[in-house]
Amino acid sequence: MVQRMTLPRALRSACVGGVLAYVALAGCTPDDNAPAPTTSVAATEEPISDVTTAPAEVLPPEKPTLMTSNDAIGARAAAEYFLSLYGYVFQTGDLAEWDAMCDPESEFCNGVRDAVDDHVASGNVQSGGSVAMSVDKVIPPSGALEEYEVTGRIDQESYEIVDSDGALLTSVAGDSELSTSVFLKMDESGSWRVRAVVIGAEQ
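== DUF6318 domain-containing protein ==
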């Protein structure tokens, strides 16, 4: 069984909840050598609004009806749908559909699940980061290979992560044309299970 998990820069940053990309603002302390002001101007206090902008509702990706077929068409639709869930789970913390498609032994699935759990527990909020896959080919099961292999390229849009107080933790530029392979098979219940995902490897 293939069990490789390789994450590119933007996806890896999302998986750690932006902690490693935390940017501390510098250069904001006063200069000790700066001359003291000779005049003072009475400041006019402005009322502080307590109205905050509510985050936009994040809708789950639409599940394609083509996923019901146990063939190359169904495998392609399932792989595209699964990767579209990546950004959604970090934006919402909703892992229901992700878990429903994950093989329990998949390192990639478990790694993302753990990262989302840590992300939610810390109170961080992500906006953006949606992922879309463009499929190049679907390789059917053959010989010892039990899964369909769906290969192609993925694009991830830019995203920001803020903490529970709304302070910006990290802002990450998107990635595009990342080579990707998804290994998956349909189980006895008629549900697709993702066994492994390889991102960033040459096809």
